[in-house]
Design a protein that fits this description.
Length: about 110
């Protein structure tokens, strides 16, 4: 059994992003999304296009990174996909205009 997995980002027809993890070949997984085989988020946003992928030797690492990316803003995802690490760094250092809800800040 394959231990690793791909983390991948798809751009949907409406311009939104879908982030997922697969142990199968990327071409197969994208074809499944475009065929509507999953019936979820991408089913109504076809066609989808692969815009990023990365192989991880352990599926747990791929899943961990998937969860992190899903929490990012659209702007951070747009900077990450082409590898614009300067923009990503600037976006990561921005402060929110909303008050913190962190317990440490109280």
């Amino acid at each position: 059994m394959v231990e690793g997995a791909f983390l991948y980002i798809l751009r949907c027809s409406d311009g939104s992003f879908y982030i997922g993890v697969t142990r199968t070949e990327l071409e197969v997984r994208i074809a499944q999304h475009n065929a509507g085989a999953f019936g979820g988020y991408t089913a109504t946003r076809r066609p989808v296009t692969l815009v990023f992928s990365q192989w991880f030797d352990r599926i747990t690492d791929a899943i961990e990174n998937e969860r992190k990316l899903k929490k990012w803003s659209r702007a951070k995802k747009e900077a990450f996909i082409p590898g614009d690490f300067e923009a990503l760094k600037a976006l990561a250092s921005r402060r929110s205009s909303y008050p913190s809800t962190s317990v440490e800040d109280r």
